[in-house]
């Protein structure tokens, strides 16, 4: 994990020995469980360190992740970016949400093995979770590396964010058209795009874009719509 330590320093994160051990154990669990279920196509250690761990931590370049923050990772999959952020910033209160129960079992095993507190894994579709009073508008920050257009992803994630909080998706480059289409959806959901940051993972040419969406007002009660609607009919986008 020396490689991860080097990359983290370039994001101004100092990882101690205990944290590096947690990342090592997380990697081992990921590879072990991936043999029997589809968690990730990326399993080579160097690739996992760069494309999963370091990528997840990149947010810290632009957002102060202090101990008072409650964070939900929507569509977390194998735990990215939520678990790396929790390891690096152990004071965060983290909820990992995923629609596949097998992945949630994996996440719970990681939480147990790494002996982490103030972190939970929830089995739920985003649309159902966003309507659940236990989670709706309860978080300072919603993050997601899920693959979806910004309009759909905003409908999945914005309902979880408190007024004054942020939704920050991890996006690829070449966002101009997606941003233009997504801004209308974001306004309908009670937010506005405050900033967009373009960066690369240290020591690579792999680009990452963070869209800072500030929650200005409560999300209207009719959102999120029923499961599948946000993907089939993205909010604010003209139907073909």
From TrEMBL:
- Write out the residues that bind S-adenosyl-L-methionine: 75, 80, 126-127, 145
Keyword Transmembrane appears in the UniProt entry: no
The main enzyme category here is transferase
Q: What is its main location?
A: cytoplasm
What Enzyme Commission number(s) does the record list for this chain?
Answer: 2.1.1.-
One Gene Ontology MF term? rRNA (guanine-N7-)-methyltransferase activity
Q: Name one Pfam family in it.
A: GidB
**SUPFAM superfamilies given in the database record:** S-adenosyl-L-methionine-dependent methyltransferases
A cellular component term (GO) from this record?
Answer: cytosol
Top-rank lineage group of the source organism: Bacteria
**Which family does this protein fall into?**
Belongs to the methyltransferase superfamily. RNA methyltransferase RsmG family.
Please give the name of this protein: Ribosomal RNA small subunit methyltransferase G
Lineage at the top is: Bacteria, Bacillati, Bacillota, Clostridia, Lachnospirales
